[in-house]
Amino acid sequence: MSGIPVTRRHLADAALAVVVGALVLTSAALDGDATPLDYVLIALSCAALGFYRAAPRAVLAVTALTGAAYTLHAEPGTLAALPVIGAVHTAARVGHRAVAAAGGGVYLAAYVATGPGSREVLEKAALLAGWFLCAVITGLADRNWQAYLRQTEQRALEAERTREEAALRRAGEERLRIARELHDSLTHSISIVKLQAGVAVHLARKRGEEVSAALLAIQEASGEAMRELRSTLEVLRTDEPTGTPALLVERARAAGLAAELTVTGHERPLPSTVDRAVYRIVQEALTNAARHAGQAKVSVVLDHGDEELEIRVEDDGNADPEHPPVPGIGLTGMRERVTALGGTLHAGPREEGGFAVRARLPLGVGS
Question: Minimal CA–CA distance to 309: which of 350, 283, 279?
Answer without folding.
Answer: 279
